[in-house]
């Protein structure tokens, strides 16, 4: 039976939603207490997660980011108190695919289930293991993946933000002898140090405030399978030491315990940082670097494979046209030419975001240049493009997103790519800023000054 998770402090509305979901033959679990979130993991098997953004986890944990990390395969919907296009767009940027507005109606719930539980569109043209591309750099990458799948060696995937490093890790796992076991993914940059330790290594009851029950870590859950640690360059020195022990011995000790648990996992790591430079600067341990960098794999940027852009753009157009029930079937030649000419600093993720926005605002079956570039920067200072068929709220959202991205780029340039310094200057929480940079496909490492040769 298909299962869903409701995360909301409002018990009454949650029970109403539970009843509606169960009437559609959905098995439901509801969480009202932040402490219960520690039970949620990749083994939970939820196909759909419905979460209220007002729900705050222990120690101020961002629940949306946490759920995206521990149940990455589930479709994510936010529960909102009222209709607000700007708020919906904000949560979509953070990974929510759908929004459910209170008070609930059976029709709105049924419509949500119809979209959320339908097979993802576009899989038939998804290329090799979900990766689209026939350029030389991609065919070479696919050959590398096939070779790596035959071994159990540790792999370090290096590439800019938005190039699809998680797809490479998934392909290696699903082609390997471990494919019948779990692929456990964790984004190391999205979690605080204490929460990351708990997620990776597990904890015993009473190990820290809020640890009301024992919990196994990712290496235990992934035993026999593959553990993928994304943004490995963001982990602290203390976590690096504990991780090194697991890599060397396969032994894990939960927080608050001296009991050694033996595990057998294949490990894949990914980063957008220059870890060799971090080793020189003392930011990353040399012994750990050599352990994870057994087989380095470089994920090419989109600018290195511009011949793949037409296929990617058409794939995303079909995917989002189906998701939003829009009759968009064609990309205008001028729009495609513009797509190919762009620098795409945010790579495939940025291209996908642009196509998604274009599909939403398109007024006909054709995706035009104006749909893709509503506020193109021109020599006269940045004239806004055509707004035909666009509502006021949509126009404001488009223009704001363009200038918000430019602001973050200028901010990182001023701060030399230092996210903590940029957050202080912008008077934003570091995690919030990091999330916004990820949304826009902005890689802070591109703004860090390189040492003189």
In short, what is this structure?
Residues 131-360 form the Sigma-54 factor interaction domain. Residues 3-117 form the Response regulatory domain. The chain is α/β, with parallel strands linked by helices and 453 residues long.
Structure explained in plain terms:
One of its GO terms (biological process) is regulation of DNA-templated transcription. It comes from hydrothermal vent metagenome. This is Nitrogen regulation protein NR(I). Strand 1, helix 1 and strand 2 form a beta-alpha-beta unit. Helix 5 packs across helix 6, helix 12 crosses helix 14 and helix 17 crosses helix 18. The strands form five sheets. This protein has a five-stranded parallel β-sheet with strand order 2-1-3-4-5, sandwiched between helices. Strands 7-10-13-6-14 form a five-stranded parallel β-sheet. The longest helix has 23 residues. The chain folds into three domains: 114 residues, Rossmann fold; 148 residues, P-loop containing nucleotide triphosphate hydrolases (Rossmann fold), CATH 3.40.50.300; 146 residues, Helicase, Ruva Protein, domain 3 (Orthogonal Bundle), CATH 1.10.8. It has 18 helices and 16 strands. The chain is an alpha/beta fold.
